[in-house]
Amino acid sequence: MKDESFRPNRVLSYFQEEWKTLFFVAVSGLIYNLGLLAGPWFEGKMTGKLVDLLGGTGTFHQMLMLVTAYVVSIGIVQVSRYFKRFYVRRFANNVNRHMKQILYGTLVRKSRLELEAEGTGNVLTKAILDVDDCVEGMRKFTTEIFDTGVALLAYACMLLWYDWKLALLCMIFPPISYVIAEKMRVMVQKTGAAYKVQSGALSAATLDRATNAITYRVFGCEEDRKAAYEENLSAYESAAVRANIWNTAMPPIYRMISMTSILFILYFGGRNVLHEGWTPWTIAVFTTFLSCYTKLATKSSSAAKLFNAVHKAQVSWKRIKPLLQNSKAEPELPAAAPAELNVDHLHFAYPNGKEIIHDLSFQAAPGQIIGVTGPVACGKSTLGKTFLCESPYEGSITFGGKELGKMEKADRNRMVGYLGHDPELFHGSVEENIRLGGKEGAEEMIRVVCLEDEVKAMENGIHTLVGTGGIRLSGGQAQRLALARTLYHKRPVLVLDDPFSALDKETEAQIFVNLKELAKDSIIILISHRLYLFDQMDQVIWMDECHTKVGTHEELLATVPSYAELCSNQTKGGSF
Ligand SMILES: Nc1ncnc2c1ncn2[C@@H]1O[C@H](COP(=O)(O)OP(=O)(O)OP(=O)(O)O)[C@@H](O)[C@H]1O
């Protein structure tokens, strides 16, 4: 696998990791660029030979030899160019894949809250566009090190060899274009960053449009949403145009500046040929010098282009760097042993200050089922998520005497299993969705959640694909599949948030029986709106406006009128 010293948040590490590919790039790049020098040399020689031929001092055979050698050298240069490009592309593809793998690894380990805070569109942009831009910068850098760096050096040496004074005079201009390119860096970066932000907003708007399409249609909001989307699109287009202008308008200007030296070559080079200048030249040397300088100036404008690409890559790198962390897949550790759960004077408030849980205390022993209920939006799901410790709480939640909030995430994962509102099925088979990295079969859990017959009836049974691109499951099927996954990864504390909301009464009752049997030594915290199983709970937590009441079903019936009323409404056959 990968080298231990590899540091994903250091650009150099990616170059080091690909040293073999870069070795081939270096060899083919050197042959290509040194071979390029042969071009101006042959061109000068051929011009000289042509003058000789016309003056009657050269032979046609000599000219033919020269042309043949020129063609062969072009062949060698082009073949090495092909190999260089091939290996540079391979380098870029390898880095791109590796960076995306690392980023993906980090994103899937981020908590729900962190992802929400970051914004889905922004995350998608980071995962795809920023990595692409970053790797593109690295690719251009690798290419230009040879195509520009080595070539420029070689051309410069050749020019100095022919007339060092004229060469120095001409070579003042390319650095001026570099300096200007460097000064323009801020604008390239600024417009590039603005483009990225708009791109993130557009991704979020597209996702929102696709995810909520039915709701918008049913409520007749399509036109409004379309207008909002168009607004995003226009902002994105303007940002893209601005970024593009700064990216593409500058290189021609850099090139013009570099080319100013041609005027000096024509004047001082002409004087050299007339033997009135600094060094006596033949017409062949004049041609070689001019051709060599034109190539040097063209190359130096590529260097300016390289600055732009690297600056653009820097913007992307800054955005993704915090997400590029060593995120080796944490191996699933075995579940912790059963133990007591102790919740003591628990308080919880969201960062906006709104208190949701106020002074809740209860204890649970292995094998107990705790029902949690209360009016809509009273904080039931918040209580469930508190056990995941995504946000800090006050008071204490201990399992086996250890404080959950102070544990390493991996240790906490061994203790608490969680099933939220959203089934969160991924693209994969029914079996893969249940096992999620586990090795053994998933059939037992399919039976526990009463999904056996339905899975058998599917075209490929347990191997049927679900999630994006797979078959469409009903709400109740998706819910049971997600429950099967939670139960498969057995934990001594199971938090199940409304796991039966999409099921009929009989199925719910059957699953509850199976669940009790399966999780005999687990503590189950069952959040639900529907109460007809609550008389089988060991304890019930009633939540209302951040106040909580804990007791047996019978105790709450006697002491909490709202609970008694809700139970009575439901058992009269009212809501289910
Ligand atoms: N991330 C959050 N930041 C701030 N407030 C939140 C957040 N999540 C939920 N809330 C608020 O906390 C309160 C309780 O929400 P919660 O989802 O826990 O209630 P619930 O009882 O599970 O609701 P339901 O009966 O609809 O399932 C609500 O007022 C909600 O707006």
TrEMBL record:
Taxonomy, superkingdom: Bacteria
Segments crossing the lipid bilayer: 21-42, 62-83
Domain ABC transporter residues, every copy: 341-569
GO MF annotations in UniProt: ATP binding
InterPro entries the record matches: AAA+_ATPase (IPR003593), ABC1_TM_dom (IPR011527), ABC1_TM_sf (IPR036640), ABC_transporter-like_ATP-bd (IPR003439), ABC_transporter-like_CS (IPR017871), P-loop_NTPase (IPR027417), Type_1_exporter (IPR039421)
PANTHER family per UniProt: ATP-BINDING CASSETTE SUB-FAMILY B (PTHR24221), ATP-BINDING CASSETTE SUB-FAMILY B MEMBER 6 (PTHR24221:SF654)
Organism of derivation: Fusicatenibacter saccharivorans
Major localization listed first in the record, in broad terms: membrane
ABC transmembrane type-1 domain segment(s): 23-312
Protein name (database record): ABC transporter ATP-binding protein
Keyword Nucleotide-binding: yes
Keywords: ATP-binding, Membrane, Nucleotide-binding, Transmembrane, Transmembrane helix
Membrane-related topology note: Multi-pass membrane protein
Pfam families recorded: ABC_membrane, ABC_tran
Cellular localization per UniProt: Cell membrane
Record flagged with keyword Isomerase: no
